[in-house]
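Possible regression after last week's pipeline update?

I re-ran a chain I had predicted before the update to compare outputs. Posting the input and the new output here so someone can diff against the archived version. Not blocking, just want to make sure nothing changed silently.
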Amino acid sequence: MKKTTITAMVACGCLLAAAAPAQAAPKDPVRALKSKLTSGHGVRFTETTTLSGDDKIKLQSRKGTFQFNAQGVAASDITATPVGRPRERTISIGKVSYTSGGMWEDRLPEGKSWLKSNGLLGGGSGFYGQVINPVEPKTLAALVKKGKLSGSTLTGKITFKELEKVSRWFGASIPLRMHNDTKVSYTLTLTSAGLVSRVKSSYAATGVFDTNGFEGKTITIDSRFTGWGAKVSIKAPDPETVTTDAGG
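New output (post-update):
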């Protein structure tokens, strides 16, 4: 083969190598989240909670919507279907929550269907719900810092105490718990845009409950997020249907 031909082939190879696109670095999940935090928009989710030990049983399923503000969650509307218990719906706006059904199904005064309270964002179902909320920038930043990102998957561990420091959602969803040092193992799946499409978390069930046969078992919550940035409008229930009397 002529020297000029070999030189041309080498040059062509160099040009092709230069033209090949470099592998895209994973997009910053926190930056991706903040780009979506616009008032009047939100994201939808579905989730399933299971308890595993010698066997695996389903505790509840939930579906809902988060409405954004610049800080993360401005409002939420969540419907829970617990196994063997009445369905529950909780609407939260700011620090105020309205819960219908569930444990309050037959306890509210006649003509009232919503119980108004402060702080319990996930309603009663929050005790079995997702402890990691990827709509909160501070929470997501802590997960990124403590975790390991490989491709589109972020994995790591964080304690209840660490979560409470960064997550208003966690503190309000599980205000009563047994052990602050309980470790939550988490796996977050990211879209090509860096947004969270799935959160799977698990922790020792005794971190919240020390009775009712939960000893030595693990709670796992698997949540899927869709429709990032969709238009959302969550409103409080009709005041005529609301009460603060839980003993009626």
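Follow-up from reviewer: compared with the archived run. The first strand starts at residue 41 and ends at 52. Marking as no regression found.
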